[in-house]
Amino acid sequence: MAPPTEGRKSKPKGRPKNDTRSLKRKRDVDDLEKLQKAVEELDLKAEIKDFTDLPLSQTTASGLEASHFKTLTDIQSKALPLALKEKDILGAAKTGSGKTLAFLIPVLENLYRQKWTELDGLGALIISPTRELAIQIFEVLRKIGRYHTFSAGLVIGGRSLQEEKERLGRMNILVCTPGRMLQHMDQTAAFEVDHLQMLVLDEADRIMDMGFQASVDAIIEHLPKQRQTMLFSATQTKKVSDLARLSLRDPEYVSVHEAAATATPTTLQQYYVLTPLPDKLDTLYSFIKSNLKSKIIVFMSSGKQVRFVYESFRHLQPGIPLLHLHGRQKQTARLDITSKFSASKNSCIFATDVVARGLDFPAVDWVIQMDCPEDADTYIHRVGRTARYERAGKAVLFLDPSEEEGMLKRLEHKKVPIQRTKPREKKQQSVKNQLQNMCFQDPELKYLGQKAFVSYTRSVFVQKDKEVFKIDEYDLEGYAASMGLPGAPKIKFQKGDSAKTLKNTPRAALSSDEDSDVETGEKKPKKDEVRTKYDRMFERRNQDVLSGHYSKMIAEDDLDKDEDQQADADEDNDFLSVKRVLPVDEDKNSDDDEGVAAAGPAPKVIHGLGKEPLVIDSKRREKMLKSKKKLLKLKEKGTKLVFDEDGIPHQMYELEDEEAFRKQGPAEMQRAKFLEEEAARVREADLDDKQLAKQKKREKREKKKAREAAAKASIDDDEAPELVGLEVGEDPMDLLRSLPLPEDDEVEEKEERPAKRPKKWFEDDSEDEKKKAAKKKRRVIEAEDEPETLEDLEALAAGLLS
Asked: Is 209 helix (H, G, I), strand (E, B) or coil?
């Protein structure tokens, strides 16, 4: 018996799987060592123009090539070699110069060279001041890191906290906003940052501001000291205190545009318009009407101004799509608005400084700053939304005469070239009267205008630079009138320093002859005078119907004072949380210092629903207005019209004019004439009906004769002689029954038979049964004698067939 291996062909021995894996692992190790060596040998002084000249991994290089990134910008060519060598960096460059890639590529490369995996935890943390900028950074990271195996996450406010908690522990790279990041550090147990390798702060000077200072300090306390830190911004911070807080180790300051002649792109044309505060809205509307085919961003100082201008201009319909964006909107709405504006070719967006930093909106033609920025750095960031990546752009700054001198000095100090221009008088339009009309008709719009006015005035009052922002030199009354308000709302801080001094003075130090209390407005009793609580109640000031509304408005404004700085650190809330149930006359008693006892809210009168004005004097009637079905009952019913042959509309039951009727003659004569005309018309109709009936009878008779002739012709055929040869005793009816019937004639007769007439609603069933009985009687054929011969049978058959 041959051994089992004999007579069989042996399979070629391949390389074992373990050997293949080990070779691949060895090749990866060799590539990593070569990459590490190339990074160490990288010359920092060498001029690098393309990404292919940098020592990058194949996965990063493939991601850059797939995203169509080939040439380096100035900031990238200087910052990338330092960042790849794991140096701390302070990067400053003009807006739109490609700072995002300058820190994203080192994040991917440094973690790749350290063989970072999902089990190692968080390796890089990128902090952004706004949600929109964080989303933009995350999208760029996804594009260039598509071939890496790192896990990356986006942590911003406005999303589900529980979902973020579940995934946070598995992330290698996080892009976040300060507020939500700190929330996870405090509340998410599985989130650890002990092994963090890199910290990146985009728009660092904004993050180091007072608005985010507490959050950033708390985050830094959680992070390890040994790490690489990179700060990037268009206007970089150099304060020693800020750098010490971040624990920077010998940072390299990279600024590519400090030696440049201007701090803004050379392709940006910058102008300013000297516009008094009451004329700002008219100038803005006129500008938008003159640039309907452009893409425009309008910056304002507060979210309430953005809301008011958006709502009022939306009613004015300038002829261009309008959008608005501010920090108090929900996250889904903000994302939707930014995507709409990015995709549009011509539109206008009203926004706060939420979109002033880092956001890349494609092809923006104009940046309008309706309100003066707080400093020159804010101006630079705002105008940076246009003229990006060496494209052309234009920017216009609206300045009040009191702001001109101080602001121009600060812009000149920052090397910002700006020149004055004037709007054309022919294209100037005034919307003041239209806004007044809208505020009078719509109490909600008026309420928005009041809050916008208070918000703007407060933002001017709290500015640090008092050389630019001089609250006493603004025409606030004219500004309130230009917004359509009947008067400027009262604001607390405009009482002056004396009120603050009196309020903070101890009660014992007040003079004895002071007759009223500063805080409550009550009269102070004399030593021997006994006064009750009713006396104090009736002597209080501001006993008008607007006191509740005014206190709510001021309380809301105190809460929203820093809304744009803290918009991304806090959770989003609805824009208007206070809604007035019944609008009242706010102008009669707002300026009354003496105060009269309130007589209650005046009823609301609405015109135009019916013949008489509708008076809303209760909550039930006001609630009824919210129901469309109930509102229809109050509206005046319309009239139904018919059109004559000439196309002239008439009412369904239109009465003839009495004078025209009398001109035609007496009523009896017109009645007789009408009856005569109707009788003649009926006679003509009867003649037509009779002729039609005769024609139908004639056609029926002719068809009957044709059928009889066809029956006779069939009897005279060749088969007819066979009928004669009948045997005695045979029944002649049997033979007749065997004859073929003319089926075609029956089909024709069925087709010609008219359809059954539907019964009228006024006909009785008994009448219908009588008609059926009469028809049955007409169909009965009576034979006088029984058929004996063949001729008698033929006659009977012809009668039955007809």
From this structure: coil
b/e for 646-668, b at 16 or more Cβ within 10 A?
eeeeeeeeeeeeeeeeeeeeeee
* Distance between CA atoms of residues 623 and 581, nearest Å: 10
Confidence (pLDDT) at 586: 41
Euclidean distance between CA atoms 373 and 464, whole angstroms:
12
94 and 132 share a domain?
Answer: yes
Residue 262 lies in a domain: no
Residue with more model confidence, 589 or 167? 167
Evaluate whether residue 59 is within a structural domain: yes
- Give the start-end residues of each E strand in 165-288: 173-176, 198-202, 228-233, 252-255, 268-274
Residue 141 contacts residue 198 (beta carbons within 8 Å): no
Task: Please identify, among 461, 483, 505, the residue that sits at the C-terminal boundary of a domain.
Answer: 461
Domain final position from 255, 281, 296: 255
User: For residue 205, what is the domain's CATH number?
Assistant: 3.40.50.300
pTM exceeding the 0.70 threshold for the entire prediction: no
Domain co-membership, 235 together with 275: no
Domain extent, residue 42, equals 29-255
- Other CB atoms within a 10 A radius of the CB of residue 424 amount to 8
pLDDT at 551 over 60: no
pLDDT tens string 359-398: 889 899 999 999 999 999 899 999 999 988 878 999 999 9
**Which residue pairs, CB below 8 angstroms and at least 24 apart, start in 776-785?**
none
User: Residue 543: helix, strand or coil by DSSP?
Assistant: coil
Q: How many residues does the chain have?
A: 802
Quote the CA–CA distance of 752 and 468 in Å, as a whole number. 100
What are the structure tokens assigned to 454, written together?
Answer: 């208070």
Which among 223, 225, 227, 251 has a CA at the least distance from the CA of 238? 251
User: Per-residue pLDDT averaged across 474-478, rounded?
Assistant: 93
Task: Give the pLDDT score at 143.
Answer: 94
Strand, coil or helix: what is 123? coil
C-beta contacts of 473-477 below 8 A and 24+ residues apart: 473/400, 473/402, 474/277, 474/400, 474/402, 475/276, 475/277, 475/278, 476/277
Whether the per-residue pLDDT at 241 is higher than 60: the answer is yes
207 exposed, middle or buried (CB, 10 Å; 0-12, 13-18, 19+)? buried
Q: Tokens for 504?
A: 């903070």
Establish if 97 belongs to a structural domain.
yes
